[in-house]
Amino acid sequence: PEVRAVLLTGSGDLFCSGIDLKSVAESGIGGAVVGEGEDGDPVVSTAANVLRTGGDWQRAWKALNECHKPVIAACQKGCYGAALELICFADIRFCTTDCVFQAPEVDLGFAADIGGNQMFPKIVGNDSLVRELQLSGRKFSADEALRFGLVSRVLATHEQLLDAAIELAESIAGKSPVATMGVKTMLNYSRDHTVDDSLQFSLTWNTSFIQTNDAKIAGMAFVAKQKPEFPDAPVHVPSASGTLSKL
């Protein structure tokens, strides 16, 4: 509960090169090894493995979006394939000027199924461009990513990238965790629902959360011209889907 924001970074020279192509060549996508099912049909076994392992990947990637803490992705030099799909589930994305992005799945003989053809279109908002990038598998630059909205900031160096991401994370961490949780939850809900449904959802959400002490703390701090100090959010909070989360 003491965590107020999450920073997603890559520890190597580049952010992430995507899935292990050698592993794919040997075992198939997501470890979906061809084998025999109970009825002796290898197609059944392979399909079951794809559903199981693919579902695991999807749940792992979706965890960024379902996490009630704001998630900031900071990408340097390269972000390919599954990594590009991963950052689509982050709330905010920064990158360096030399960062290159690519959705190469089409060249590997399959269609992206953990975000590339699902979350990426919601971010870009340009159907023609999404189809161009997904069907061609071409690389695109940081400048292009900024123009169509994949990232909101482009920094000159990796050091400047981390500084900017950390500064933003610290700024968010100083806000009411109840308020930031509400903002993220409402934005996620609004993305997938009509305006009318989203407006009603926001009112329903605030019938409870606007009554917390955080609103009082913020008001008193504003009057006193002081920086507010907010308590940690509760450990268990409901997601928009109605499930409980410890994130």
SSE diagram, text form:
Blueprint (H helix, E strand, L loop, with lengths): L5 E4 L11 H7 L14 H25 L4 E5 L2 E3 L1 H6 L4 E5 L3 E3 L17 H5 L2 H10 L2 E3 H6 L5 E3 L2 H16 L3 H16 L2 H15 L3 H12 L12 E2 L5 E2 L2
Parallel strand pairs: 1-2, 2-4, 3-5, 4-7
Antiparallel strand pairs: 5-6, 8-9
Helix pairs in contact: 8-9
Description of the molecule:
This protein has 247 residues and is α/β, with parallel strands linked by helices. Strands 1-2-4-7 form a four-stranded parallel beta sheet. Strands 3-5-6 form a three-stranded mixed beta sheet. A two-stranded antiparallel sheet has the order 8-9. The longest helix has 25 residues. 28% of the residues are buried. The model has no long low-confidence stretch (mean pLDDT 89).
Main sheet record:
4 strands, parallel
| Spatial order of the strands forming the largest sheet | 1-2-4-7
Straight-line N-to-C gap: 8 Å
What Rg do the Cα atoms give? 21 Å
Mean pLDDT: 89
Percentage of residues in DSSP E strands: 5-15%
Structural class: alpha/beta
Strand tally, please? 9
Helix content: 40-55%
Brief characterization of the structure:
This protein is an alpha/beta fold and 247 residues long.
Task: List the defining traits of the structure above.
alpha/beta, single chain, four-stranded parallel sheet, 247 residues
